[in-house]
Design goal:
With 481 residues, the chain is an alpha/beta fold. Helices cover 35% and strands 20% of the residues. α1 runs parallel beside α7, α3 packs antiparallel against α5 and α7 crosses α10.
Length: 481
């Protein structure tokens, strides 16, 4: 992804800081654009200055041409006083995900003068004829303003979008204002934007301070993770439920687990399986079940051999595509240690019910007990014995049937209701994927890679194509949906 950044000779030091901050971020290329000004004054943050406004106009007039040159791609168009958190290596993936569903993403601005809370200093743009026409019209409009006011053209941009939103939906672009993790120094900050910091040296100091803060936060997180080992020791297992007829999925599944899950996160890793034991990696504890029995009987036969207090329960077609967030999983365990009423925390938002939801705490919500599919096999952190009890008390059925209302996954909700079970799900503003679920930043996975036995190319075209290509999978054997 190209990041176009406008600068002048007087602030070249800023560009050096920006480039330095992107060194470890995959697929991000900084493209500097040198602007010209006759002013000898320090224009950094001087939004009231006429010379500053002229400079900003020349910058924005270059955008339609850049969009036209990048039709079919996503780009960033940025202020120069931004530095990235190099430890957020998934930054480009995040922006691309947002732009799958939107024409443009913007930074949030706390300034009440911005009618839509938009800061133009960070724009992610899906380059298309639509966005080209939108920005061409906006540039035509602002270039005609004779005596612009302080804040030009930020205020005009907010007002223009607000007008289109209310009166001209045909020419409106679909935009998303990003959370404060994008621009402000939050705990989960992706980049810092030195908004409101006056003067050249003031900006440099603020940007350097942010880079230092990113490093300290990263080191602190690593220490927390190390100290968490004593708390996690012997408490958490990974439980994988699979069947030998899906052994063609195992290579990519187990390889991605090894790649994206820290080796010391789980006390043990278990595989519940019927056969093909030689194909399971040696670092897994294999528990074999009788294939002739129902899903309930198979699962109960295996789960009572899992000794750990907690388990992360997944299936073999949940294929990871990025690092899991170990710290959040640790936070969930801390929460469940304190609140004994919570039986599970699901790592994603999803289900046939779409709200409203009762908030438990920031980013955590109760799974509604009275709705269908309170129980699902979506990836979650469980109290192992509670998961076992659901299966022991639940209906003697297979996990899924053509008659879906007589499947274990559907009927087990009644069991959970009888148990007065409480469960949570987490949601960090991830994008919706398909009809019933959202992506997961805690456990970033394809959910699910198989749909009725066929490869799920519809909901995950890019991610699945990468898997097919990397593991040389003959897609014709299973087919795809």
């Amino acid at each position: 992804m190209k990041a176009y950044i406008f600068y002048t000779d007087s602030i070249k030091d800023w560009i050096d800081l920006v480039i330095e901050s992107t060194n470890n971020i995959d697929d991000l290329e900084v493209v500097p654009i040198l602007g010209k000004t006759n002013s000898t004054s320090d224009l950094a943050g001087a939004t009231h200055s006429h010379e500053y406004m002229k400079l900003m106009l020349s910058r924005w007039l270059s955008l339609p041409k850049i969009i036209k040159e990048n039709i079919g791609n996503n780009i960033l168009f940025l202020d120069c006083d931004i530095v990235f958190n190099e430890y957020k290596e998934d930054f480009v993936d995040k922006i691309n995900l947002f732009l799958q569903d939107h024409d443009m993403v913007t930074q949030y601005d706390t300034n009440s003068g911005m009618s839509l809370g938009i800061n133009m200093g960070f724009l992610g743009i899906k380059c298309s004829e639509k966005t080209f026409n939108f920005f061409s019209e906006f540039m035509n409009m602002i270039s005609k303003i004779q005596n612009p006011n302080t804040g030009y053209p930020q205020i005009e941009f907010n007002n223009y979008l607000n007008y289109l939103k209310n009166y001209d939906s045909y020419n409106m672009v679909d935009f998303k204002v990003l959370p404060q993790d994008y621009g402000y120094l939050t705990e989960n900050c992706y980049f810092y934007h030195a908004i409101g910091v006056p003067g050249n040296q003031g900006k440099i100091n603020a940007m350097k301070s942010a880079l230092s803060n990113f490093k300290k936060t990263h080191e602190s997180s690593k220490k927390k993770l190390l100290s968490a080992k004593n708390i996690l020791e012997g408490k958490v297992a990974l439980v994988v439920n699979t069947i030998s007829k899906n052994d063609d999925v195992w290579e990519c599944f187990f390889d991605r687990i090894a790649r994206y899950v820290p080796t010391d996160l789980f006390n043990k890793k278990y595989v519940f399986v019927d056969d093909d034991l030689s194909k399971v990696p040696k670092d897994y504890n294999v528990i074999r079940y009788d294939r002739s029995k129902t899903y309930k009987e198979q699962f109960c036969q295996c789960i009572n051999k899992v000794e750990e207090e907690y388990c992360v329960y997944i299936s073999e077609d949940y294929i990871l595509y990025n690092n899991i967030d170990s710290q959040k999983i640790q936070n969930f365990i801390d929460l469940m240690n304190q609140d004994k009423e919570i039986s599970f925390i699901r790592f994603m938002k999803g289900g046939v019910y779409n709200g409203p939801y009762q908030e438990y705490s920031k980013n955590l919500f109760y799974v509604p007990i009275k709705q269908d599919y309170f129980y699902t096999n979506q990836v979650a952190l469980w109290r192992t014995r509670d998961l076992q009890e659901v299966h022991e008390r639940g209906p003697n059925l297979h996990i899924a049937n053509l008659d879906w209302q007589n499947s274990f996954e559907y009927q087990a909700t009644k069991t959970c209701q009888e148990m007065l079970m409480k469960g949570l799900f987490c949601y960090y503003d991830e994008r919706k994927r398909g009809m019933y679920h959202y992506d997961s930043s805690v456990f970033p996975h394809i959910s699910t890679a198989l749909v009725k036995g066929k490869w799920n190319m519809t909901e995950y075209p890019k991610k699945m194509s990468e898997v097919i290509r990397e593991y040389d999978i003959d897609i014709q054997k299973r087919g795809w949906v």
